[in-house]
C-alpha cells in the first residue's frame, strides 16, 4: 500500500499573501489575512480595517486554527486601540467570536491587559503596548512551533523505533496556516520529512469544511511531503490494514484533566488508535492548555450552522447534498478523554495527559494570562 502515497515535487515558495500581518496604510493600520476559505483555489488577501471585519473573518473561518486565532485576537485588540475604538468592547466581541479555542481568549486578554496597564500613559502609548503584546505573541508562537517540531519528532522516533519511516495520520489543518511558525502536528510531520523519516502522511479530508483536503493537502504539496488524502470514514480501514504508525493532531483547548478538544472527528480516531494500539499524540503550545477548564465536560463545543453539512461550501460551491429542510448536527469539535491520549507535545516538552496536575502546574508556570 506504500505506493498509494502521492509523491509531489517540492514547491517551496512561501504563500503569496502573509497568513497574518499588521500593516500601515494611508487610512490607518490594518490587519492583513490570507483568506483560508478560498484555498486551495487562490491565495487572496483579506484586509480587516476594524474589529467587526475581523470578527467576520474569524466566524467564517477565513482565519482559523487555535494558535492563529490567538494571534489574530491580540492584533484585533491592537487594531481597536490604534483606531481609537472602544477597546473593552472590541475585546469582548473578539473573545466571543468563537468559543472553543482557548488561544483566542488568551491572545485577546494578553493584548487587552497590556493596553490597560499602559492606559495611564496616553492613548498612543497604550495602543503601542497592545501591538507590542500581539507581536510578541506572534513571535513566541513561531518559536513554540519549532520547539514542538523537535520534541514531537524525538517522541515519534522513541515510540516508533523501526527504521522504515513513520506513517502518520492527521486530521484538520495544523500547519503554517494556523500559526506564527510551521504549526503544531503538521510541523512534526514536516520535521520528520526533512529528517528523511516520514514514509507517508495520511490526510483526513475533515468534513464538513474540508480543512484537511483544502488546507493540509495544500501545505503538504507545497512542502513536497508524501501524502494521501482519505475521506474521514476511511480511517478505520487504514488501521485494519496496519498502515498507521501514529496519529498526530492539534488541539483547540486542553482541560486541566488532560481532555483534548479538537476538530470533530478527532475522538473517533483516538478510539481507533487505542483499539489498534497505535500512539495518539496531541501537539499544542502551552497557550492551548487551560487550567481554568477542569475537565472535558466543561469545554464549550461550538455548534456551527447545519447548512455547512447540507450545502458544504468547499464542495463545488452551491452543491446541495441533502433534501431541502434536512436538519444537520454540526459540532465543530469533539473532546477526547485523557486516557486515550498517549502524549501531549508542547514547546516545553512532552506531557502525559494522565498527570492532569502536571498540566495545570505547567500552565501556571508558563502563562502570563489566566483564562478562567
Ligand atoms: C494547531 S491547530 C489545532 C486546531 O485548532 C485544529 O486542529 C482545529 O481543530 C481547527 O479548527 P477550525 O474550526 O478550522 O478553526
Automatic annotation (TrEMBL):
Reaction catalysis annotation: 5-(methylsulfanyl)-alpha-D-ribose 1-phosphate = 5-(methylsulfanyl)-D-ribulose 1-phosphate
UniProt xrefs under Gene3D superfamilies: translation initiation factor eif-2b, domain 1, Translation initiation factor eif-2b, domain 2
Pathway in which the depicted protein is active: Amino-acid biosynthesis; L-methionine biosynthesis via salvage pathway; L-methionine from S-methyl-5-thio-alpha-D-ribose 1-phosphate: step 1/6
This enzyme's EC code(s): 5.3.1.23
Keywords from the named record: Amino-acid biosynthesis, Isomerase, Methionine biosynthesis
Secretion signal, residue range per the UniProt entry: none
Taxonomy, superkingdom: Bacteria
InterPro entries xrefs: IF-2B-related, IF-M1Pi, IF_2B-like_C, Initiation_fac_2B_a/b/d, M1Pi_N, NagB/RpiA_transferase-like
Residues with site note (Transition state stabilizer): 172
GO MF: S-methyl-5-thioribose-1-phosphate isomerase activity
UniProt-listed Pfam families: IF-2B
Function summary: Catalyzes the interconversion of methylthioribose-1-phosphate (MTR-1-P) into methylthioribulose-1-phosphate (MTRu-1-P).
UniProt cross-references to HAMAP family, sorted A to Z: Salvage_MtnA (MF_01678)
Full protein name: Methylthioribose-1-phosphate isomerase
Species assigned in the record: Streptomyces amakusaensis
Gene: mtnA
